[in-house]
Amino acid sequence: MGMEELLRAILYELRGMNARRQRLLTAFLSGVMRGIGAMIGFAVVGTALVWLLQSIARANLPLISDFLAQVVTMVQLRIQ
Fold first, then answer.
1. Residue among 57, 33, 56, 53 at smallest CA distance from 45
2. What is the pLDDT of residues 9-30, one digit of tens each?
3. Is residue 68 a contact partner of residue 53, using CB atoms and an 8 Å limit?
4. Angle 62-79/3-59 helices, nearest 10 degrees?
5. Which of 34, 70, 68 is nearest to 49 (CA)?
6. Cα 12 to Cα 60: distance, rounded to the nearest angstrom
7. Contacts of 52-58 spanning 24+ positions with Cβ under 8 A
8. What residue spans define the domains of the chain?
9. How many CB atoms sit inside 10 A of residue 65's CB?
10. What is the pLDDT of residue 1?
């Protein structure tokens, strides 16, 4: 094995290490972005749900308002 072949083998290994490192970094950043997206999505959906429930409670619909009052009472009893 000549010196040139040895250098080519070393360069090939170094390129492979860089490619592995780049794939690892890409996968890590992809996971972080998915987590941030899920967090933002949950915040938006949660906010919309709370807003919807508040508007229903303000409308004072008899059946739904009674149900929400029971839910709030149960939650308050659980907390204590």
1. 53
2. 877 777 777 777 778 878 998 9
3. yes
4. 120
5. 68
6. 72
7. none
8. 3-79
9. 14
10. 62
